[in-house]
Design brief:
The chain is built from six helices and two strands; from the N terminus they run ααααββαα. The chain has a two-stranded antiparallel ribbon with strand order 1-2. It is elongated. It starts with 27 loop residues before the first helix and ends in a 12-residue tail after the last helix. The C terminus is likely disordered.
Length: 172
């Protein structure tokens, strides 16, 4: 691994009370993990109040967002990397079929029902409201800059990590 020569900042232990002048010393894995957990908890808690899960929303969007209707395995394969376990998305598809928000056709392709589309639209409105809370005080330029930095860090780690691609480790 070739360490970057662009920065000579020493790494300090994670400290949620660190002052702004010391933020550059903080581990990105700690802070990005806290952000991911807080945002996911915020979304999932709001969705739970209306008896929906975040993975159900993912499936509704995936089924809706295709030019042709996707098959069950296609949806499961595409969304499993985001899920909490290898069987979660398959279970979610079953839940949505049972709830009447999805239906299958003769070729076993998935389609939203009228109720499913109405639920997807309600959830989209909810997620838009929740996003506004998360983004409060952050303009689009700052948000884009933050994502570019994260994307660059991911590329740095994946490029240097070898065959495993660097996923899962949070040494920094």
């Amino acid at each position: 691994m070739n360490p970057s020569t662009d920065s000579t900042t020493d790494q300090a232990p994670a400290d949620p009370a660190v002052t702004d002048d010391l933020l550059a010393t903080q581990p990105i894995g700690y802070w990005s993990g806290l952000a991911q957990e807080a945002v996911a908890r915020h979304l999932r808690d709001a969705m739970a109040r209306i008896d929906v899960t975040q993975p159900q929303y993912w499936v509704l969007n995936r089924v809706n967002g295709r030019p042709g209707a996707p098959g069950r395995e296609e949806v499961v394969t595409q969304l499993t990397p985001l899920a909490d376990g290898p069987h979660e998305i398959a279970r979610v598809v079953d839940q949505l079929l049972h709830r009447g928000w999805l239906r299958t056709d003769d070729q076993r392709r998935l389609h939203l029902t009228g109720e499913g589309e109405a639920a997807r639209l309600r959830l989209r409105a909810l997620v838009t409201e929740l996003r506004a809370v998360v983004h409060q005080g952050i303009d689009d330029e700052e948000y884009v800059a933050a994502l570019k930095v994260l994307r660059r860090m991911i590329a740095n780690v994946e490029g240097a990590a070898g065959p495993r691609g660097g996923r899962g480790a949070q040494a920094d």
